[in-house]
Amino acid sequence: MVLSIVVLISGGGSNLRALLEAAADANFPARIVAVGSDNDAPGLEHAEAFGVPSFTVVPTAFADRASWGDELLAQVEAWSPDLVVCAGFMRILPPRFVAALSPNLINTHPALLPAFPGAHAVRDALAAGVAETGVTVHIVDEGVDTGPVLVQRVVPILAGDTEFDLHERIKIVERDVIVSAVESIAERRIVLPEPARNRQHQENPS
């Protein structure tokens, strides 16, 4: 099975680039069908370079977060993806978006969850004085970095590390981990749970 993927980004798109490069190999079991963003992100240039369509849904163009989420969902669902990957997507997704796509909605996070959730994970790990942090790929739920963990990999914190230094080392690992996770999902070495809506239908057939 070749997995079809929509990737969501907010920034430079280094994880997106890693996925695009992996998917360019005919033997890789996934294809990126579209890339979405919440702003005119520089990472969209990677999609253009690989000939992948992109879309942008800017929150300030909508009356409220729910309306923005509904439009983002419509744009994603137009591509009928098997999996949606949040790769440096820096906004909390509204409940209707999550309910429609999870558990086929995953995120990369620069820490070993449940430690250091949120937008400042690298800074928080340094401030806590821990010896190691890392990368987590997890299913997105309605909380902030609270969904089930799929893959984790440790990154040591070195003496004298700045936030920038540590984050750059984490990014290198993160690129490898997200490509590996997507490959494992496509090859069913990682099996995502059945969506709740499917379970409910099986339990209460009409």
UniProtKB/TrEMBL annotation:
Q: Which UniProt keywords apply?
A: Purine biosynthesis, Transferase
- The record's top EC class is transferase
Give its E.C. classification number: 2.1.2.2
Residues flagged as site, Raises pKa of active site His? D145
Where (6R)-10-formyltetrahydrofolate is bound, by residue? R65, M90, R91, I92, L93, N107
| SUPFAM superfamilies reported in the protein's UniProt record | Formyltransferase
- Pfam entry (one): Formyl_trans_N
Q: Can you supply one Gene Ontology CC term for this chain's record?
A: cytosol
Gene3D superfamilies, A to Z: Formyl transferase, N-terminal domain
The record places the active site at H109
Domain Formyl transferase N-terminal residues, every copy: 5-182
Report residues binding N(1)-(5-phospho-beta-D-ribosyl)glycinamide: G13, S14, N15
Recorded hits in NCBIfam families, A to Z, give: PurN (TIGR00639)
Q: What is this protein called?
A: Phosphoribosylglycinamide formyltransferase
Lineage of the organism: Bacteria, Bacillati, Actinomycetota, Actinomycetes, Micrococcales
Gene expressing this chain: purN
